[in-house]
Structures are given as C-alpha cells and as structure tokens.
C-alpha cells in the first residue's frame, strides 16, 4: 500500500509530506484546489511522462517520492527479474531536472520508465471516470474471471506451452519451405552432382596435370637436352669426367714435390664422384622421359574437362569444384532427410497442440464455473448502490485452436441491462457513465476479496450519483477497504463520511504565489468540511448536525 507521499517543487506545490491510512482515505477540496496535481504527481512515480515545466520554483528540481509497503504483493520475482534490491518498504523516486530531463529510482537504483511503469501497475490502480472504458476490454473481463477462478498459474503454463507451440509452428513452416525449395531444385542439383561425380575432380589436381602436360609437350626437347648434357659429361672424346680424371692424376703426380696440394686432390676426387653421379642421373632422367602422344591427349582432355567445369560454376580452382560437389551432396541428402524431419516435427506439433488445447479447456471450465458467482454478487452490489434492476451477464465462448491467444481459448463479452424489460447488450452500448462507474466499483470490490490487488484510487467516479445512492457507494468503498487500501477523491459528503482518514486539499496565497496544500482533518474539522460540502462555505446548524450524523453512521 501507499504509506507516504513526498512532493517537492511540483506545479502549485512547494512541499508536501502525506501519510496515508491502510483503509479508506478520502480526499476532498474545491474544484481547482489541487486534487488533480496530486494525481499528476502520483502518475509521475508510476511511470508517466513529464509534460511541460512542472516547477513551483524555476530554481530547484522537482522531486516526488512514494513509500510503499509491498510485503503482501509477492513482488520478489519482479525485483529479481529487473535486477533491483527488494525491500518490504520500497521507495520510488522521480526527479525532474531544470533542463527538462527526468530520472527515476527504485530503492535508490536507477530504472527506466518502462520498469517504473511495470512496477507502478502492480502497486496502484487508478480508477477515474475515463478508466471505466477498461470494463469494455476483453483483457479486463478475462482478468476478472481469472482472479476469482485462481487461474494465474494455469495461464503462466498456458503461455509457456503456447510459446513452444508457436516455435514448433515456425520450425515446421521453415522446414517445409526448405523442403519445397530443395525438391524444386533436386533434379537440377542431381544433374550437377552427377557431372562433378563423373569427372571426380581431386584437391590440388590441376598443378600436377599442368606439370605433366608441359613435360609431355616438350619431351623431345627434354630428352635432347639431357642426352647432350650426359654426352658432355661422360661420353664425348674430350668429356668432362675423363679430363677431370686426367687432372687428378697430374695433381697426384706433383704431390711428392709440392706440399699442401693434397687437399686439392681430395676436392677434385669429390667433384669427380659428384659428376659421375650426375651423369648417371641424367641418363636415368632421359630414359624416364617418353614421347607418349596418347598420354598427352589424356592429360589435355582431363584439364579441358576441369576448365569447362570451373567456367560453368564460375570458380577459379579445382578445390572450389570439390567444395561445390560436397554442397550439392548435402542438399541432395537433405531432401532425403527432410521428409523424415517434417514428419517428426509435425508429430511434435500435434502433441503440443493437444497439450495447449487441454490447458485452454481447463482454464475455460474454471472461468465458466465462476460466472454465476460473478453475476450474482455484482447484481447484489448494484442493487445496494441504487440499481436494483441491473443485471450483468457474461457470455463466454470457447474458440477452436486456430484462434487461440495468450489469454486462452475464450472470447468474452459483458452484457448489461440497467432496467426491467431492457434487452441485454454489450455493456459499453447501454450503460451511462454513472452506471459504468458503479458496475466497475462492484466488480473491483468482488475481485479484491480473492486477490491482493494494489492500492486503488477512485478519482471522482461519483459523477452522476447523489443522496442515498452516494451513501451506498461509500459503504461499498468502505467494505472494499477491508481488503485493500482505497483512496477516493470525491465531492459527495455521503462518500466523504465513510473514510478512516480524511484529507482536504486547499489553496492559499503566500507572498506573491498561490500554493496548494493538503491536511489531514481531525474529527471536528471533518464535521465542518462535510457540512460545507452539504450546504456551502457557511454551513448552518442543520448542515453541521447532518454532517455529524453521517460521520456517526
């Protein structure tokens, strides 16, 4: 509940510090006194955006703080999800700086407006004349039934299972589209794969073929060169090896006369051995080179096939052709596997659909079972607030699986009739503003009995009622306050008299400025305030006596 509200430098408010009662809190005051300013300040700590320059003094920032006792709301998961420190008494602060920027804090941790709004929705429910439009929404109507049917955990499970179902739907759709595409290309891919498989290009094959091609094309020239080199080394009349042998002998002959040439002899012997080896290798190499026209044709044809495939597939190397062949093989294999995958996913999707439908039907049955209680208790409350012939009927229809939503399988409509003989119609078509306010009051008082609703604020929803009806509305608010904190802004003395705490908003001039203030009234001040609400600024003894009677009642 809202324990305390601090407002500094906001609109017509210089500084206010208000502590609220846990039951029914009444706020009264003349039109224009500043009640809407209080609502605006509350709106800011609940995540509303700043409009204009809301400063009482242009020299200081605006600060609004709300102290909330949240121990009964089970909000620990929200705080954990938002990475905020949980405190049983949580402080929400909003600061508006002079440059127009604003900052928001929860327990001194900076938060975004989205987080602030999410938390605010769990703490305060502001019910104004315009908020009666909420009763026309399917979300609110289902919320009423779910609160009383205790469907919260089932709805969480339903949303999770529905999310999984939709995920399977997307997977199945994607796989089917891929399979259709693969089937459309399968024949062409098979043709390309068969062609590459027939040629059977190997990694790094072209370099070896091109080298062999060069050798085969120049085989005669190669043999001639190798043969000539071999002849010069070992076969000619004045071949290199013979001359080197003779030179070795000459050097060896002079070693007896000239010291220091032994090393030269050894080097020449080594050179002779190396030249003989080279000569033999030249012969071997020359013998290995063949003039093979048939093999040359085979190599040329092989290279031509590879070059044609490279050009066809617009690649620069045989390795890319190998990669393309592997990709085509994968695609063809996928066509074989996709049928099985589609079958498996379709089976999972069917099982998941049955699980979702079963949860949805369970939620529907629980909603359906609570409808008679809702209709009966709302009718009793409406009768108590001056609408004895009013009837609320709830039309709940079970949809098929194709039209399910995160709210379940139901479509709902609140039907209403305010008078005898009046046909039941959609509530927003036949109920006046005052009737809608009372219907909403009846519904929220019913919901409050079964769920820990946040603080609720009734912002002048008493428009269009008076007298005995207003007294009954006040009694309903008073009973509602047994289950939750209620703040009611009202112009009606009958409602004002029901509050456990009564605050008066008023204006006063201080110096050259007008300020809005609020004060908690004691019993005598309440008598006078209610008497003034009954008869005007200077109430007579009769009005004062009537005020005392209302308060005593």
TrEMBL record:
<keyword id="KW-0175">Coiled coil</keyword>
<protein>
    <recommendedName>
        <fullName>DNA repair protein RecN</fullName>
    </recommendedName>
</protein>
<feature type="domain" description="RecF/RecN/SMC N-terminal">
    <location>
        <begin position="2"/>
        <end position="511"/>
    </location>
</feature>
<keyword id="KW-0227">DNA damage</keyword>
<dbReference type="InterPro" id="IPR027417">
    <property type="entry name" value="P-loop_NTPase"/>
</dbReference>
<comment type="similarity">
    <text>Belongs to the RecN family.</text>
</comment>
<feature type="coiled-coil region">
    <location>
        <begin position="261"/>
        <end position="302"/>
    </location>
</feature>
<keyword id="KW-0547">Nucleotide-binding</keyword>
<keyword id="KW-0067">ATP-binding</keyword>
<feature type="coiled-coil region">
    <location>
        <begin position="148"/>
        <end position="229"/>
    </location>
</feature>
<dbReference type="Pfam" id="PF02463">
    <property type="entry name" value="SMC_N"/>
</dbReference>
<dbReference type="InterPro" id="IPR004604">
    <property type="entry name" value="DNA_recomb/repair_RecN"/>
</dbReference>
<dbReference type="InterPro" id="IPR003395">
    <property type="entry name" value="RecF/RecN/SMC_N"/>
</dbReference>
<comment type="function">
    <text>May be involved in recombinational repair of damaged DNA.</text>
</comment>
<keyword id="KW-0234">DNA repair</keyword>
């Amino acid at each position: 509940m809202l324990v305390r509200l601090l407002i500094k430098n906001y609109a017509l408010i210089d500084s206010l510090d208000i502590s609220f009662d846990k039951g029914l809190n009444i706020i009264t005051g003349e039109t224009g006194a500043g009640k809407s300013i209080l609502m605006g300040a509350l709106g800011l700590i609940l995540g509303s955006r700043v409009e204009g320059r809301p400063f009482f003094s242009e020299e200081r920032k605006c600060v609004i703080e709300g102290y909330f006792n949240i121990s009964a709301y089970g909000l620990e998961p929200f705080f954990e999800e938002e990475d905020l420190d949980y405190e049983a008494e949580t402080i929400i602060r909003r600061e508006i700086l002079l440059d127009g920027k604003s900052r928001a804090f929860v327990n001194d941790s900076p938060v975004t407006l989205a987080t602030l709004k999410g938390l605010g929705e769990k703490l305060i429910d502001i019910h104004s004349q315009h908020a009666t439009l909420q009763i026309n929404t399917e979300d609110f109507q289902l919320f009423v039934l779910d609160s009383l049917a205790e469907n919260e955990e089932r709805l969480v499970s339903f949303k999770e299972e529905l999310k999984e179902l939709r995920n399977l739907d997307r997977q199945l759709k994607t796989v089917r589209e891929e399979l259709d595409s693969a089937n459309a290309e399968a024949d062409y891919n098979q043709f390309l794969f068969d062609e590459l498989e027939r040629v059977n290009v190997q990694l790094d094959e072209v370099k070896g073929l091109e080298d062999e091609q060069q050798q085969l094309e120049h085989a005669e020239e190669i043999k001639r060169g190798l043969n000539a080199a071999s002849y010069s080394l070992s076969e000619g009349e004045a071949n290199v090896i013979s001359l080197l042998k003779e030179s070795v002998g000459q050097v060896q002959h002079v070693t007896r006369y000239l010291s220091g040439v032994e090393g030269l002899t050894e080097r020449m012997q080594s050179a002779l051995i190396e030249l003989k080896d080279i000569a033999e290798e030249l012969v071997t190499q020359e013998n290995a080179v063949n003039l093979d026209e048939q093999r040359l044709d085979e190599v040329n044809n092989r290279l031509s096939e590879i070059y044609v495939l490279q050009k066809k597939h617009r690649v620069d190397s045989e390795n890319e052709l190998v990669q393309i062949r592997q990709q085509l093989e994968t695609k063809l294999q996928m066509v074989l596997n996709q049928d099985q995958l589609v079958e498996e996913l379709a089976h999972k999707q069917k099982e998941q659909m049955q699980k979702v439908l079963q949860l949805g039907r369970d939620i529907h049955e629980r909603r359906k079972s609570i409808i008679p209680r809702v209709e009966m208790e709302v009718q009793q409350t409406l009768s108590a607030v001056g609408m004895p012939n009013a009837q609320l009927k709830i039309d709940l229809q079970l949809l098929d699986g194709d039209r399910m939503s995160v709210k379940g399988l139901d479509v709902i409509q609140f039907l209403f009739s305010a008078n005898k003989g009046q046909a039941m119609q959609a509530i927003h078509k036949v109920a006046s503003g005052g009737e809608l306010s009372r219907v909403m009051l009846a519904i929220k008082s019913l919901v409050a009995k079964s769920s820990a609703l946040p603080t609720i604020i009734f912002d002048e929803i008493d428009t269009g009622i008076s007298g005995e009806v207003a007294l009954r509305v006040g009694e309903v608010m008073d009973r509602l306050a047994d289950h939750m904190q209620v703040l009611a802004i009202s112009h009606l003395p009958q409602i004002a008299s029901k509050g456990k705490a009564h605050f008066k908003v008023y204006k006063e001039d201080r110096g050259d400025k007008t300020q809005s203030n609020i004060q908690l009234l004691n019993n005598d001040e309440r008598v006078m305030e209610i008497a003034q609400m009954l008869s005007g600024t200077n109430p007579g003894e009769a009005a004062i006596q009537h005020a005392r009677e209302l308060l005593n009642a």
